[in-house]
Amino acid sequence: MERPDKDLAFMLQYENVAWYEDGAVRILDRRCYPRTVSFVTCRTHEEVAQAIADMVTQSAGPYPAAAMGMALAAHECRDRSEAEQRAFLMRAADRLTHARPTTAKRMERVCEQMTEAAEAAWKSGANVAEAIKARAIEANNSRYRKIARMAEYLVGRFPQDGTILTQCFAETIVGMMLKEARAKGKRLRIFCPETRPYFQGARLTATVCYEMGFDVTVITDNMPAFVMQNEHVDVFTSAADAITMDGYVVNKVGTFQIAIAAKYLGIPYYVTGAPDVVHPTIDTVRIEQRDPKFVLEAMGVKTARDGVKGYYPAFDITPPELVSGVVTDRGVFDPKDLHRYAEGGVQAYEVVV
Question: Which residues are catalytic, by number?
């Protein structure tokens, strides 16, 4: 069967996100891509967790990285008794789950599924590491196909010749959105805010758009309102690190202010992703505070005077009043009516960015 990552950009291919093989996990280093194409090789699951914490991979990248990290953990403890292996994998799952706090609930579901694959392998006598890797690939297939359905609904909201504003790097949905637009013959012009301090929009989103043949322009993070007002933007769209059941969107810091400007200018904002049943209200979300030194530099070059302070919340919260629709694999939902999505049943692996 054809893999759903076919015809997507380089960095969205499974092997170039995170891949377990021969006792190691190889992760594309997104901190320097695309100017430098290099991979971080992890020999232990602890190194995988550290790579996730250090932003070697971002957006949805940590989820397959965690899954492949569980395969690596199984390889690490392969010569121990089954009971010892089970305890080792439980500890590894906890470490990988909590590599970044805001997405811990989703990471927990990923690791739970990999643990289920291990249990099945112990019962059948199969190689545990390979069984977990196979489940990780299966989860990737399921996620990419689900996102392809989201892309159909999202692109359906775009005009034939549309101008789209993105935010940060929306991972798979960016590739699937463009693939769907190409299939529908829609000619899109895309503006990508740079997304400091890691510049994911400038480096990652723009690269995917360019590689897939679309007109793409990078703007600084303080330009979205001007661009929406003067460049005839039709739609603002982003993915989300969490969508709570009461309709709040947790995404890369800066999303909230763009949504405010879009609302003022009458431009719809569509967020893609599955509502998180593990977050019934916004009160259950913890906003990650990252090292403030990163806002005092740009790609490793210091820009501020020594002695001044920085402040770096990784995410912000956009209230449902600013969201035109939550685009899911089951259609577009009003952000205040997400219980209807949950009523359709939720799969164990619902990471959909």
Answer: 241
